[in-house]
Design goal:
Length: about 60
């Protein structure tokens, strides 16, 4: 037979163990080129710029 726990773990013990499992909110920074919020150290998804240079050429949508 495999080993089994001798005593039941209390809900407090379980919750204290899980106290570090929560996800942290991601940091967002403002793009200096277009002002949209983006993840740090990544190309801006709305304008395609990173560190003052255009990395991805974005299509401009015509509003009708």
């Amino acid at each position: 037979m495999p080993p089994l726990p001798k005593k039941k773990h209390s809900s407090g013990k379980r919750d204290r163990r899980r106290s570090h499992d929560a996800l942290e909110a991601q940091n967002l920074v403002q793009c200096p080129n277009c002002g949209e919020m983006r993840l740090p150290h990544r190309v801006c998804p709305s304008c395609g710029h990173y560190q003052g240079r255009e990395i991805i050429e974005m299509k401009k949508e015509d509003k009708k």
